[in-house]
């Protein structure tokens, strides 16, 4: 598994040292380097790196504010790793949901441990079989989210399209499901949420996605194009790509 990363709040020495250490691991691929948090925020929103390395030796409070601001724009935050010469900001890093905290000078052992933690986390998330409960009056229906291909808004109700071809109507808005479904589900249109594991084709020219083994095409809108870009990036990592 390869992870793209960005370095935030970095001077040239810090960036060079960190990139030299990470070069020893084939899992890491640099997406950008920012000298301060505002520039870093732009890189994160533009490049969507999976990992953010933040230098906490200077302007740490500004960096923590940047992390809070990310919640306004991203449904799922990247993995954040803080780096410092001391443990001074370790507690604040934990409070802000940092994945790890590295002490300088950097060493291969700490980096390797983080890589293994990342791989273990990704494997666990892939194996998760989430169950969705659809409640209607006194009727409770339990379905595996792995069996859901996509959801379509129908006024104040939602139609759930299943892998077996059945359609289940739920008396909830699409927004309700958007906030509760696993990370593999992505809003691509005002009327659609798509389980990205069922995507077989993304056509940017026609602004459509095609469903596997089904040939159904769903539109994606310009306002959700960033979600499609993120999906394409994730899918590309696990595929063999050829260009005509």
Automatic annotation (TrEMBL):
InterPro entries: CheY-like_superfamily (IPR011006), LytR-like (IPR046947), LytTR_DNA-bd_dom (IPR007492). Residues 132-237 form the HTH LytTR-type domain. It comes from the Bacteria. One of its GO terms (molecular function) is DNA binding. Pfam families: LytTR (PF04397). PANTHER family: STAGE 0 SPORULATION PROTEIN A HOMOLOG, TRANSCRIPTIONAL REGULATOR-RELATED. This is Two component transcriptional regulator, LytTR family. It comes from Cellulophaga baltica. The lineage of its organism: Bacteria, Pseudomonadati, Bacteroidota, Flavobacteriia, Flavobacteriales.
């Amino acid at each position: 598994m390869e992870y793209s990363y960005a370095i935030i709040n970095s001077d040239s020495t810090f960036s060079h040292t960190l990139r030299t250490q990470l070069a020893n691991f084939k899992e890491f691929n640099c997406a950008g380097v920012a000298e301060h948090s505002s520039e870093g925020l732009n890189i994160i929103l533009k490049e969507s790196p999976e990992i953010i390395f933040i230098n906490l030796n200077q302007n740490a409070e500004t960096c923590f504010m940047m992390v809070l601001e990310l919640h306004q724009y991203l449904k799922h935050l990247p993995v954040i790793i803080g780096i410092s010469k001391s443990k001074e900001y370790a507690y604040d890093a934990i409070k802000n949901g940092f994945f790890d905290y590295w002490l300088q000078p950097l060493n291969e052992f700490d980096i390797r441990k983080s890589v293994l933690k990342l791989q273990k986390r990704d494997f666990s998330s892939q194996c998760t079989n989430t169950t969705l409960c659809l409640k209607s009056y006194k009727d409770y229906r339990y379905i595996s989210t792995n069996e859901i291909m996509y959801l379509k808004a129908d006024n104040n109700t939602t139609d759930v399209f299943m892998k077996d071809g059945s359609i289940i109507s739920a008396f909830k808005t699409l927004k309700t499901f958007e906030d509760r479904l696993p990370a593999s589900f992505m809003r691509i249109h005002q009327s659609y949420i798509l389980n990205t594991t069922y995507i077989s084709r993304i056509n940017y020219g026609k602004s459509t996605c095609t469903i596997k083994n089904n040939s159904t095409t769903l539109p994606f809108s310009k306002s959700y194009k960033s979600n499609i870009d993120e999906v394409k990036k994730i899918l590309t990592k696990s595929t063999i790509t050829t260009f005509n």
